[in-house]
TrEMBL record, chains A, B:
The keyword Zinc applies. GO terms for molecular function: histidinol dehydrogenase activity; NAD binding; zinc ion binding. GO terms for biological process: L-histidine biosynthetic process. HAMAP family: HisD (MF_01024). This is Histidinol dehydrogenase. Binds 1 zinc ion per subunit. The active site is at E330 (proton acceptor), H331 (proton acceptor). One of its GO terms (cellular component) is cytosol. Catalyzes the sequential NAD-dependent oxidations of L-histidinol to L-histidinaldehyde and then to L-histidine.
Length: 437, 437
């Protein structure tokens, strides 16, 4: 038997039940905070020596210097060259498509001139140096390398430093190959909060970066939160989620497998199906029971479905969209007859997969849009990782003498209402200059 | 005598001296962390009751309900209508110019179709509800209301909730007038970490928002850091800074006053002048000594110049730009003959003010670009507050059956290298469907 929560929008406590379902707070948040803070302070103080100790402790990596943890750039290329043809091709297609999509996200500088000759503008530039964190551990994810590195490369970042945990020193050749294709300039076998610390503060060997992106475990996420301000960060990632809305006319095995593909990530991953047809929910549940024994990661799938999965019955598809907007899912699959119309009424989601053929997994690897997406309801305010995360803006203001005089009059009035006399005087000098001119 | 640090790039320890000058870390960071965490937890648990208690304790505001802390929307309009004509005009000009500039920053949705009918896109939408924090306390800043609210309104945010501390219940009419002009939909006389908590978690009276923006004191900044993830935040603001590069040919009094205008903000504000001419640095210092006694906020100016101000002599203007790129200043004034050329080589700054007539103060109030800018070297990775801070993106992926089959083949290969069989099977269903079709 497969255990999974069943909810219905007709039950009186549905809003609370839904909120409980999607609420996610790490069980031992306080401990994670303290551990992360300790590692950060230690690496900040002792640099390489601390990084080495944590690598030995957490990844059983015993080396004499952080330099030995750096992966030679030539090794990246040779890893790519040694891949079987189908893997090389798949990786290349993925990189090309991610790059092509990212190119469309580039933010451009602008400037314009006003009648009195005053010019205003905004200069957009790439960051100098960024760190990308790539999860390793239970599974190495070459796709994550591409999804983090490519938008940085497209933005024009000149130094892209990859940190990837290598338990017992092991790293999948695909991860190195992806780093080569993605434009990574330096790579280290360093993971956990110590990787975030090294990137944020710099060590004797690891250069300090300007921004750290990429998802990691709870310690990595907490470390990123704590260094925010010293460096930029992209977001604080929680467990991965999918919400599938189905009208009841997709092959139930497809939907069952789509839910599995999320649930197999880890025990905290969340897979939710929303459908107005209770019979169809039964069919999908039966398909899951039938298919589960054949899955390699059936234990993880079973646990995550039992813990956080749900089959939700709504009165109609309109109500299904209400559920979507409350959940603000990371991944949203619209397995319905008219997905475009439904997508228009979706207010909050990281990525929307439209139509029965658009399995979420296509977006994980090759569709093009980034797979680093806002989790845990943060799609209410956050966006997919993109080129814009690796660009920054500077405002440009160039007043003509006439413009400075005209603006200076108003600035002086406002400054004086705020009690800031030096502000007012600074503006008035330019007003007086114009009177003399 | 006016006390201010003098540095020269020719001194052997210049890099370390410069780093010490610009490094800023709150003296009692740990205490601030604990106090903020306590207030957040309390407001989260007890809602309105906690907000009322902190208001009584910190702002001496004794009322019976949070509803009494809400400012009636009609009061905003009547505050605007009651302003003297010059203030009303100045505020209107500022609002209009900030709005016109913000309009140019809007990010637009895009989508495109590939040869096999697959469509990709990115949908850009405004956030639903945002909170803006407006500093009050020592001085009420109507300009900050505009600079926070207007970009949100331009983005299309439908609910803009303003929090402003009102010590002893006092609020400047200009602040209310600016809220009216800026498009604030609700306003509360609540400040400090409790304002951030109320916005992040919601209370019986204050609705929870999706993002909190705007600078505040150290407690507000720390509270924002701690709620990041529950809601979005813009940045963590440190003290305000200006760096002026001058070629030695601007009236020394103008530059002295421009430095004062930064220093008068508060005792931690930073004002730095960089110039290749040591005689000119002397002239500016003499001008400062002459002008200081006439300033209303001379004590604050004197303290902040002594603590954090500096006059830096460089070998030439090229070296001055190197100093700029190390400091990554919030405000950068280029008081030189060819400011455009110099601006091109500036890599990091929040806003650049080009030319002798473009006093930084013009940007504080009326030029148009936002005055909420990245401080404390964060211009290396962060941008001015803008419309883009109130918009979010959702990726759109709609595969045609042929596209799903083609992409599915590669996705399956990559999924299997990552050991994710359910991912692979989910893709393969769509490949098989195409084979059958």
């Amino acid at each position: 038997m497969l255990e999974i929560t069943r909810l219905s929008t007709t039950q009186p406590d549905f809003p609370e039940a839904l909120r409980r379902l999607v609420d996610w707070e790490a069980a031992d948040a306080h401990r994670v905070q303290e551990v992360a803070a300790g590692i950060l302070a230690d690496v900040r103080k002792r640099g390489d020596a601390a990084v080495l100790e944590y690598g030995a402790r957490f990844d059983r990596l015993h080396v004499d210097s952080v330099r030995e943890l750096e992966i030679d750039h030539a090794a990246l290329k040779s890893a790519f060259d040694s891949l079987p043809a189908d893997q090389r091709e798949a990786l290349q297609v993925a990189a090309d498509r991610v790059r092509a999509y990212a190119e469309r996200q580039k933010v451009e500088s602008f400037s314009f001139e006003e009648a009195d000759g005053t010019r205003l503008g905004q200069k957009v530039e790439p960051l100098d140096r960024v760190g990308i964190y790539v999860p390793g551990g239970k599974a190495a994810y070459p796709s994550s390398v591409l999804m983090n590195a490519v938008p940085a490369a497209v933005a024009g970042v000149s130094e892209i430093i990859m940190m990837v945990p290598a338990p017992d020193g092991q790293l999948a050749p695909m991860v190195l190959a992806a780093a080569y294709l993605g434009g990574v300039t330096r790579a280290f076998r360093i993971g956990g909060a110590q990787a975030v610390a090294a990137l944020a503060y710099g060590t004797e060997t690891v250069p300090a970066v300007d921004k750290i992106v990429g998802p990691g475990n709870a310690y990595v996420a907490e470390a990123k939160r704590q260094v925010f301000g010293v460096v930029g960060i992209d977001m604080i990632a929680g467990p991965s989620e999918i919400l599938v809305v189905c009208d009841g006319h997709t092959d139930p095995e497809w939907i069952a497998m789509d839910l599995f593909s999320q649930a197999e990530h880890d025990e905290d991953a969340q897979a939710i199906l929303v459908c107005p047809d209770p019979m169809y929910l039964d069919q999908v549940q039966q398909a899951m029971e039938r298919l589960l024994p054949g899955m390699e990661r059936s234990d993880i799938i079973r646990t995550s479905l039992a813990r956080r999965g749900a089959l939700i019955c709504t009165r109609d598809l309109t109500e299904a969209v209400d559920v979507v907007n409350t959940v603000a899912p990371e991944h949203l699959e619209l397995s319905v007859a008219e997905p475009e119309k439904m997508a228009d009424s979706v207010r909050h989601a990281g990525a929307i997969f439209l139509g029965r053929h658009t399995a979420e997994v296509l977006g994980d690897y090759v569709a093009g849009p980034d797979h680093v997406l806002p989790t845990s309801r943060t799609a209410r305010f956050a966006s997919p990782l993109g080129v814009y995360d690796f660009q920054k803006r500077t405002s440009l203001i160039q007043c003509s003498p006439a413009g400075a005089a005209a603006l200076g009059r108003h600035a002086s009035v406002l400054a004086r209402t705020e009690g800031l006399t030096a502000h007012a005087r600074s503006a008035e000098y330019r007003v007086e200059a114009s009177g003399r001119g």
